[in-house]
TrEMBL record:
It comes from the Bacteria. Residues 1-97 form the DUF5753 domain. Pfam families: DUF5753. This is DUF5753 domain-containing protein. InterPro entries: DUF5753.
Length: 105
């Protein structure tokens, strides 16, 4: 486990990596406002069609890909609230370092 945590710490130092931790002991209201797990996907396109933007959700059934603007806006808003509620980048790294020390041999 310690190696995995150390790897996350190492990755979090990369300029193209943003790692934020949402601790299990987080205050109520820090869970997904959408009520389910989701991801946002953006694929840039140099063509006239523009970028591809989709929200990916998982539930009991099949995964769903949502591309209508209303759903995207709702998921973007939820993402913004979650990232604002999560630990900042430096706090997340400190959290991982403290956690890693608990697994010291």
């Amino acid at each position: 486990m310690r190696e995995q945590i150390e790897h996350l710490i190492e990755l979090s130092n990369r300029p193209n990596m943003m790692l934020q931790i949402m601790p299990f002991k987080a205050a109520p209201g820090r869970r997904s406002p959408i009520g389910t797990r989701f991801g946002l996907l953006r694929v840039p396109s140099p063509g006239a069609a523009g970028p591809i933007e989709v929200a990916y959700t998982e539930g009991v059934g099949d995964p769903r890909y949502l591309d209508d603007q209303r759903a995207l806006d709702a998921h973007e808003s939820a993402w913004a609230r979650l990232t604002n509620a999560a630990l900042r980048f430096d706090e997340s790294r400190a959290f991982l370092k403290a956690l890693s020390s608990e697994y010291a041999t």
